Amino acid sequence: MAVSHRLFRPATTTVKKTFSSFLIRSLSSSSSSSSGSSLDPKIDLEEAAAQLEKSSSTSPSPSPSPYKGRNFHWVFLGCPGVGKGTYASRLSSLLGVPHIATGDLVREELSSSGLLSSQLKELVNHGKLVPDEFIISLLSKRLQAGKEKGESGYILDGFPRTVTQAEILEGVTNIDLVINLKLREEALLAKCLGRRICSECGANYNVACIDIKGDDDSPRMYMPPLLPPPDCESKLISRADDTEEVVRERLRIYNKMTQPVEEFYKKRGKLLEFELPGGIPESWPRLLRALHLENDKQSAIA
Ligand code: ADP
Prior knowledge:
- This protein is of the alpha/beta class.
- Helix content is 47%, strand content 13%.
- The protein contains 14 helices and 10 strands.
- The strands form 3 sheets. The protein has a 5-stranded parallel β-sheet with strand order 2-3-1-4-10, sandwiched between helices. Strands 6-5-9 form a 3-stranded antiparallel β-sheet. A two-stranded antiparallel ribbon has the order 7-8.
- Strand 5 (195-198) and strand 6 form a beta hairpin.
- The termini are far apart.
- Bound molecules: adenosine-5'-diphosphate.
- Keywords: Kinase, Nucleotide-binding, Transferase.
- Monomer.
- GO terms for molecular function: AMP kinase activity; ATP binding.
- This is Adenylate kinase subfamily.
- InterPro entries: Adenyl_kin_sub (IPR006259), Adenylat/UMP-CMP_kin (IPR000850), Adenylat_kinase_CS (IPR033690).
């Protein structure tokens, strides 16, 4: 596809090199003139990294969370459909740190019109990753804006997704913990296909009812649908990249590009593997236990 040739360039092997020499020339040329996109025409990785570093420093949190001041820097990894957004968002309310999902940042950015936006949309809607430089620039801006509002710490969801992104992040901030959510492969596709979003309030639902029979190796897995309240029912939409063909491609890309990121953090002793046993009622308390958060009264109601 012409778009991917213009936007993708091979990842550099060292962070140093990346920092000193990476500018997005192809992005700047494709976003020139009156594209109407709010993207910077030139994205300087050094500047982006400096922003990341600044935004990871301690500052007072406005949240009433009992964990206030602990300044969590956590990352969620996991295949499409595993439920990163759901659990990251719950933990974010519990811990009083923002949940930052790069997929959401990308979708927000792509809702603007313009040539660059439509080229990137083409990538996302085909299940491909967008260029590292683009995503780092989006993330830096988001973290900087958060810092200005007094946010400290974060739970990242969907970043890093390549080893280059992980190296860059590791070079500018200290990630405390990486939670790798796992779910049986049969459930992932069904969960993506069943995902629905309220076009008005943005709430997430799932119409899939997953019931996988148990066998000698694994127990039965039941995940009931998460149905919308009447107010949202008539406003449900699906993501453009939640079609069977595109989900399969996203899974393929995850295995190729993001699985090495798991290894990256494992080697550094930061990876917590967590196999989801089923839906939220079973999984949430177990996840809290795995994170040593189970004794807190707030956890139970989060
Ligand atoms: P998924 O359900 O596949 O985890 P996300 O909502 O996290 O989906 O991301 C949607 C799309 O946004 C991805 O398929 C990819 O095109 C783009 N994207 C999100 N995060 C990144 C990232 N860190 N690097 C590159 N592309 C990303």
